[in-house]
Amino acid sequence: MTLLDGKKISNQIKDEIAAEVAEIKKRGEKVPHLAAVLVGNDGASLTYVGSKVRSCERIGFESTLIHLPEDTTEEELLAKVEDLNLDPGIDGYIVQLPLPRHIDEQKVLMAVHPDKDVDGFHPTNFGKMALDMESFIPATPFGIMELLKRYEVETEGKHTVVIGRSHIVGRPISILMSQKGKAANATVTLTHSRTKNLQELTLQADIVVSALGVPNFLKADMVKEGVVVIDVGITRVPDESRERGYYITGDVHFEEVSKKASFITPVPGGVGPMTIAMLLKNTLLARERHGL
Ligand code: GUN
Asked: For residues 8 and 36, what is the distance between their CA atoms, to the nearest angstrom?
């Protein structure tokens, strides 16, 4: 069994980006600038955004965190988005999800200029991705593809079963894995809460991507020997005995499933760190595409 070490690979990618930033600085050009908009004080979102900002500092990007109060109106947020669209100093930005319930998420994501949409959530980028055109690929699926590539995991003709059809992970990874251009060429089954006989499908899978958010969902009796397992779940389980008051766990019963797997991602340290690395990569690409 080979551990797909997202922490290690993400550090490699960050080092590669940092080397490019050093070159940009040497030429006296403007370094990439990523901004993040956070509305409210959701604990997980604060952690993610904080981690994104720290990563920017580490690799030499400029970063701006725009932290707005929970009671920010949709109108105020849309005005902030428009400011960012027009600010020539910002190469790319993200609006951290989830947004408070009184704000229409789709309306906000639609307002992000596609050329600055480093999350790849705008319909223009999503559509371009589906059509194999140059776009921003959402960071989590992009990270999964990169992890498979760097470990030289064979995907051609392999049956990939994706669990979960979210717009952020399940749906885009099912598209990317089936594509010709990105060297995946897998055969994909996209499963979800209404799927019948899920176990029958996962037992046929050469690759399982689980993006469900249910701890220990995927057990050893659901996978075949030699399976490749990508665990996208990041669930916070309350635990008073820990300093932080919780621990992080994935969708996969790691202890059981790792005994049958040929490759498997750990949680934490698998897909999570790759997501941040690929967001930085997208920001670097945004800077290049803007011709700065
Ligand atoms: N919330 C959970 N994952 C993500 C992500 O990749 N981007 C943003 N903006 N919000 C998220």
From this structure: 25
> Domain 28-113's class?
alpha beta
Split the chain (292 residues) into runs of 10 and give each run's mean pLDDT.
Answer: 98 98 98 98 95 96 98 98 98 98 98 98 98 96 98 97 98 96 87 97 98 97 98 96 95 98 98 98 96 59
Structure tokens at 29: 């050009």
| Sign, Cα dihedral of 277, 279, 282, 284 | negative
CATH architecture of 139-272: 3-Layer(aba) Sandwich (3.40)
What is the Å distance from ligand 1's center to 140 Cα? 9
Where do we find the tokens 């300093």? 243
Q: Measuring CA to CA, which residue among 54, 108, 105, 57 is closest to residue 85?
A: 108
Between the CA of 97 and the centroid of ligand 1 the distance, in Å, is 5
* The one catalytic residue among 117, 119, 206, 251: 119
Query: Same topology for domains 28-113 and 139-272, yes or no?
Result: yes
Predicted ipTM of the assembly: 0.93
Q: Residue 60: left if φ>0, alpha if ψ -120 to 50, beta else—which one?
A: left
Residue 192 CB partners (closer than 8 Å, separation 6+): 163, 164, 165, 170
Ligand 1 cavity residues, CB under 6 Å: 94-97, 119, 139-140, 168, 275
Does residue 96 carry a catalytic annotation? Answer: yes
Q: What are the residue boundaries of the structural domains of the chain, listed by start?
A: 28-113, 139-272
pLDDT of residue 220: 98
Q: 166 a known binding residue?
A: yes
Q: How far apart are CA 290 and CA 15, in angstroms?
A: 23
What pLDDT, on the 0 to 100 scale, is given for residue 183? Answer: 66
Q: What is the pTM of this model?
A: 0.97
164 assigned binding-site residue: yes
State yes or no: 234 annotated in a binding site: yes
What does the pLDDT read at residue 290? 84
